Amino acid sequence: MSTEPYDRPYDPYIPSGQGAQGGQNDRTRKIQEQIDDTVGVMRENLNKVADRGARLDHLQDKTDNLAQSAQSFRRGANQVRKKMWWKDMKMRIWLIIGIVVLLAIIIIPSVLATRK
To answer: Helix/strand/coil (H, E, C) string of 53-100?
Structure first.
C-alpha cells in the first residue's frame, strides 16, 4: 500500500484515483492559489471598509459636536447682541435726556428773561 494520499492534504475536489496526475493537480493548485489570493484581497478590502466605517463614525461624532457648539455659539452671540443693543439704547436715552435737560437749562432762563 502506498502512503502517497497521506502526504498531501485532503482535497475533496481531487478524485482519489487522479491524485497522481501532474497536469490536473498543477492546474488545481494554481486555481486554489488564485482563490486564496482573491480571498486575501477581499479580507483586506473588508478590513479597510471596517476601518473606514470607524473613521466615518468618528467623523460623524465630531460633526455632531461641532453642530452643538455652533448652536451654543449662536445662542450666546444672540444674547450678547441683545445685551449690547440694550446698552446702546440706554446710552441713547441718557444722551437724549441730557440734551433735553441742557436745552431746558438754556431755553427756560432766556424765556423768563424776555418776559420780564
So the answer is: HHHHHHHHHHHHHHHHHHHHHHHHHHHHHHHHHHHHHHHHHHHHHHHH
- Please report, for the chain, how many H helices and E strands are present, in that order: 2, 0
Q: Tens digit of pLDDT for each residue in 62-112?
A: 999 999 999 999 999 999 999 999 999 999 999 999 999 999 999 988 888
pTM above 0.70, yes or no: no
What is the chain's alpha carbon radius of gyration, rounded to the nearest angstrom? Answer: 45
Please list, in sequence order, all residues whose beta carbon lies within 8 angstroms of the beta carbon of residue 4, skipping any fewer than 6 positions away: 19, 20
**How many whole angstroms separate alpha carbon 19 and alpha carbon 11?**
10
